Amino acid sequence: MITAPDRTPLSREFFDRPVLQVAPDLLGRILVRNTPEGPIELRLTEVEAYAGTDDPGSHAYRGRTARNDVMFGPPGHVYVYFTYGMWHCMNLVCGPEGMASAVLLRAGEITEGADLARKRRLSARTDKELAKGPARLATALGVDRALDGSDICAGPDAPLSILTGTPVRPGQVRNGPRTGVAGDGGDGEAHPWRYWIANDPTVSQYRAHTPRRRRT
């Protein structure tokens, strides 16, 4: 018997936990994006954890700024940043207020509103690629800096909300180095904080950190 995903909204208490607990627990949850054209729903399949001022890979590592202010809490809010001059990426703030922890949403499966997502992701060859990567995910959902600071626990009519969905069994969860993030030795292995659902076709391809060459 197949059980339908649980549509109970996740509480703020869910996010008010250490980031390394929240991140893998987000796999299988349903992210709902309400747009003027209609809703889009996405099942989360890949995420990355960032542990604030204790984490060299985090935007908050060097302290609070106007850009990363939302990361410092309260939990249950959305942190959106702009990168490479062209892409947005979406994070969910978690942990005690002031800790600046957040989970980057790396990939997911569009389960409703695929027609709307396709209009934003014209280069996707299949629906499995609509949200395969953090920038693609944000683009498919129509997420940009205007949604920075949104309360994901504000209710079903909010621009973004998240439902219980179908939590993934521990045996299905995999973890490893974060994509494109350096760690001890430059390989990212000191922080194996990327979590994904094993064998899911929507999970993005791992890319190791490549140090930038300085011009001489």
Order of helices and strands: EHHEEEEEHHEEE
Give the helix proportion (percent range): 10-25%
Number of helices: 4
The first-level CATH class is given as Alpha Beta
Q: Which architecture would the CATH scheme give at its second level?
A: Roll
Separation of termini?
A: 64 Å
What's the average pLDDT?
Answer: 92
The beta-strand count equals 9
Rg over alpha carbons: 16 Å
Uncertain segments of ≥5 residues (pLDDT<50)? Answer: none
GO biological process, one term: base-excision repair
GO molecular function, one term: alkylbase DNA N-glycosylase activity
Organism: Streptomyces himalayensis subsp. himalayensis
Enzyme class: hydrolase
List keywords for this structure.
216 residues; 9 strands; alpha+beta; 3-methyladenine DNA Glycosylase, Chain A; 4 helices; nine-stranded antiparallel sheet
Q: How does this model look, in words?
A:
Belongs to the DNA glycosylase MPG family. It is an enzyme of class 3 (hydrolase). By secondary structure, the protein is an alpha+beta fold. It has a single domain, classed as Methylpurine-DNA glycosylase (MPG) (3-methyladenine DNA Glycosylase, Chain A, Roll). It has helices spanning 12-15, 19-25, 114-120, 134-141; strands at 6-9, 30-35, 38-51, 78-83, 87-94, 101-112, 160-165, 173-176, 194-197. Strands 1, 2, 3, 4, 5, 6, 7, 8 and 9 form a nine-stranded antiparallel β-sheet that branches. β2 (30-35) and β3 form a beta hairpin. The chain is globular, with a radius of gyration of 16 Å. 46% of the residues are buried.
